[in-house]
Amino acid sequence: GQILSREILDIPPKWCINIHASLLPKYRGSAPINWALINGEKVTGVTSMIVSAALDSGPVLLKKEVPVGEDDDVSILHDKLSTAGGELLSETMDRIRKGDLTPVPQNESEATYFPMLEKKDGLIDWNKKAEEIRNRIRGLNPWPGTYTYLFGAMLKIYKADVIGRGEVTSPLPVGTILDISDKGIVVATGDGYLSIKELQLEGKRRMAVSEFIRGHKIEKGMVLGS
Predict the structure, then answer these.
(1) Per-run averaged pLDDT (10 residues), the chain, 226 residues
(2) Residue 79: enclosing H or E segment and its boundaries?
(3) Residue 85 belongs to what H/E stretch?
(4) Does the reported pTM lie above 0.90?
């Protein structure tokens, strides 16, 4: 992603228009879908805007809200926003032709910017709340992915559920495996429990937990992250 030069912005006879995958001025930057999921947003959306020389800061034309599903990951939410963005672009162009669109400057005091993601952002901190960890798994799936360590090897986690939101967790260290079954590998976190549903050990293929526990020696009391 590059900021367009003034030479390019001046080419259109009226405006240079962009569809951004958030409800601006929130979530400016290159990874708005990821960060909306990481932050546990229940609603996001798309915005049609006039492109300016500064990043995602041009006047807003139209917005369209999109609900975020409980099990949405980046791929699912991307497709929802892609469809909504196409609809919004069509409406924006129609209204520009009719001359009934008035650009609205963004409120800079409400602007939020989130940076590009890196692979290191996927390392799970088991001291976090279970809900926060699950949101990060959703927000980094499929890339760059969330991961921890088991047997000294990287263990990628693709899907997980939360058990016991807001409840006091086990007195055992965070990252400790508390239960193992076909339904999930339950892990202690800083608040609540995370039940891992889909995972991939380094050098192996991605698989459901029911298959994983049949092919790997994993026991209660093991601590993830070491």
Answers:
(1) 81 93 96 98 98 92 98 98 98 96 97 94 97 98 96 96 74 94 96 96 97 95 92
(2) helix 74-98
(3) helix 74-98
(4) yes
